[in-house]
Amino acid sequence: MPRCPADITQCRACPRLVKWREQVAREKKREYRAWEYWGRPVPGFGDPNARVLIIGLAPAAHGANRTGRMFTGDQSGRWLYRALHKAGFANQPTWERRDDGLKLTDCYITAVCHCAPPGNKPVPAEIENCSGYLRAELARLKNLRMVVALGRIAFDQYRRLTGLRDLTFGHNRLYPTRPVLIASYHPSRQNTNTGKLTEPMLDAVFAQARALASINEQA
């Protein structure tokens, strides 16, 4: 695994991802021509004292790769921040830009891969190159009680990094690990447009996370 700088925004460990994220930032999408794209690795975002950690897959090319904040500026973020606001983890459901006033309470968001990958599909070597950052975040978040893995790739990578075995992915399935793990379908267009993931289904995940984190606090 290449040695990466402590500041994740300076990382250039994966040539394919560096080329893609910077190409997207130069060429832009027509509707975002006026934007100055972020075009770099996107750091984690949220409350450093969080009890709940959300792990996604990777920044979207014209979402977080444009805005510089996890799940910001794309439809996956619209679904996620709406659900977080409803569950009391976010002060507002706004999801459009870094300076929109959004704040997370008791919640932190990161990803398996911090650069936008072509086709939203990082390859295993790229996920491995980024694994040190996720390990570091897990070590820094001292108050974690819950981990929500959005999608099978996030679920599997978290299992690998923490040595968990014999766990089968299932939406809104709870695993009695420490921290407690909850799996969820990713709020991607592929899942939300087909009805594989609905708003009530995603709400149920974060309602469960909120309830269990509160129980752990009382205990």
SSE topology:
Elements: H1 15-27, E1 45-46, E2 52-56, H2 64-67, H3 75-87, E3 107-111, H4 124-140, E4 146-150, H5 152-162, E5 173-175, E6 180-184, H6 189-192, H7 199-218
Helix pairs in contact: 3-7
Keywords:
7 helices; 11% strand; Uracil-DNA Glycosylase, subunit E; six-stranded mixed β-sheet; alpha/beta
Average pLDDT reading: 94
Rough shape?
Answer: globular
CATH class: Alpha Beta
Number of domains: 1
Low-confidence stretches: none
Query: How far from one another are the termini?
Result: 40 Å
Commentary on this structure:
There is one protein chain. With 219 residues, the chain is an alpha/beta fold. It has one domain (13-218): Uracil-DNA Glycosylase, subunit E, CATH 3.40.470.10. 37% of the residues lie in helices and 11% in strands. It contains seven helices and six strands, in the order αββααβαβαββαα. A six-stranded mixed sheet has the order 1-3-2-4-6-5. The longest helix has 20 residues, at 199-218. It is globular, with a radius of gyration of 16 Å. The N and C termini lie far apart (40 Å).
Brief rundown of the structure:
This protein is globular.
